[in-house]
Amino acid sequence: MQKVNIENCYRKYTYPFVETICLIDGKPRLLRYHNRRLNHTRKMIFGSTDFIDLADYIPQKFHSGKQKLRVLYNERILSVKATDYQIDEIEKISAVTIDSSFSYTYKSSNRAYFAQLLDEHNAQDLVLIQNNLITDTTYCNLIFFDGHRWLTPSQPLLEGCMRQNLIENHGILPVIIRTEDLDKLVSFKRINAMRSFDEAQEIAISAILIEQKC
């Protein structure tokens, strides 16, 4: 296997990567998924072969309720910060077409493109369409109910930890979902590490408003 060029990686990835871990009463949720993604990213981008266990970076001080633990890293852990978290709810959400070349395979802390989209559309969140395929929102994966089962786009921008957990353990089915397929669906949820299936708001599919290409 060809060795990763570290200098090229540093030039391309000038921002650290990030894991966002949900703490419930101080206990981490989906930690093995976060460990898997963090160490895979380190291996693919920096050529790192050692294993970092995020359990070693969980705050020891007890805190009740839900917190978001933000871990910044490159080859090593750079910073860890916990903040309180509350799930927001929405009534409507716009769907916009994004650049076909945009990639977010690795969870980078550089979210300038997402911030630009939100600013342009004066929105808190957006459903993102790429090459006529439904992908994610600006900060969540999506799952859709077709009246019989729950589905998730098979080509997301980012393979999130909660999404992977729902696929592996709860029967969520990855499928291609095109823009024109939305009318065949009943409802949807926005999920991520901070929003489990049960916690995420279920929203009628009519709440998605298709907008023109950016």
From TrEMBL:
UniProt-recorded Gene Ontology molecular function terms: catalytic activity
Domain of life according to the entry: Bacteria
Stored InterPro entries: Aminotrans_IV (IPR001544), Aminotransferase-like (IPR036038), BCAT-like_C (IPR043132), BCAT-like_N (IPR043131)
Protein name: Aminotransferase class IV
Organism: Weeksella virosa (strain ATCC 43766 / DSM 16922 / JCM 21250 / CCUG 30538 / CDC 9751 / IAM 14551 / NBRC 16016 / NCTC 11634 / CL345/78)
